[in-house]
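Quick one: structure for this chain?
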Amino acid sequence: MRGRLAGALVIALFGAVGPAAAGQGQLPDSGVRGVVLDTTCYGPCQVDQQPEPYKGSGLTVVVRRISTGEVIRTLTPRSGRFSNRLRPGAYRVIARVADDCWEGEAKRVGVKAHEFTPVKLHVGNRCIV
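Got it. Here's what it folds into:
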């Protein structure tokens, strides 16, 4: 009888701990949400010209952890917009276009618990004069 009672107690204990342990693997409710803007002037640049989201091909956004330099995510945004869940911490977010003429921007971003940090990055084609 004691063996069955002890067995039932162990099963009940694992049942109570199981859901809490499973919750540890869930995605965080924080991260980055942003846009990559194309600052290239196709033709003469105009005063107060507002850049548009990058819509070309070959765009990647790389997220690295500041403390280790480890690549956490590599994103391929559509229409220049991106969003990704990340744990709270400090990250370097880098925009790149797979073409020698393009220059991208990198920014240091702090992600806080329960918040999505807005990020605005720029890319530009330096071969267009």
